Amino acid sequence: MDIDENRIADLEIYLTRMQRSILDKMFFIDKVFEPFKYILDFGCANGELIKAMQPMFPDYSYIGYDISSEMISAAKENVSDAEFFDDWDKIGIPFGESLINISSTIHEVYSYGSEEDVRIFWERVFDSGFRYVAIRDMSCPASMAETPCDAEKLDIIMNSGYAKWLESFENVWGKVHTQRDLAHFLLKYKYTQNWDREVHENYLPISTEELISRIPDGYRVVYRDGFTLPYISWQIRKDFGFDFTDNTHIKLILEKI
């Protein structure tokens, strides 16, 4: 898979947005209890999560992986005492003694990768033998794709200052008819600085049920949480005056049996 780095029109804004969710990306650290030695941050970008975790949890060894050589170069400058790779096959840690953290990455694999890239991604996640797999990403229940969208909320958006962004969204994804469509727009409407990239990215490529169905028999779910990100709920209420409470995100921790 080769993500065109030029699609990120303003890299600084993109990275700043990622930094805002650093604490939430650490959700797994107080919920795993069997011993492990390594934390592998899959899709590490410039290494900010590793940089934040190192002083708080110094007993682990940290490894970052990202397919972007530009990001890996930035990560090596940002965090000098961790290992970073853009070649999966060069990662030499024992996966059986490791936790792999996959945060806001699955939707990018589906958005920019081929079917073969998606297959390889899940193979690396589940067939490598990681002690723990921590997942945090956007996902909604399948029922939202069958539920008509709230017409009153849609009307508010159509008569707001974000109407042109809704029109642009519908030019790419079609008319907003379901709650999933509405959620998809509301998850991305604020990211206008990198809009051309964001509007084409599929934030909700697989449902929560599809994600759960991918978990092999060799793993068990030890933590699961479907939720609406508090910051997004606050922003929607501030901009449109209504509450949006549908689950748009999921957190999972899987333990190897």
From TrEMBL:
Gene3D superfamilies for this protein: Vaccinia Virus protein VP39
Phosphoprotein as UniProt keyword: no
Keywords: Methyltransferase, Transferase
Domain of life: Bacteria
Pfam family, one: Methyltransf_23
Any Gene Ontology biological process: methylation
Alphabetized GO MF terms: methyltransferase activity
Protein name (database record): Methyltransferase domain-containing protein
Organism encoding this protein: Ruminococcus albus
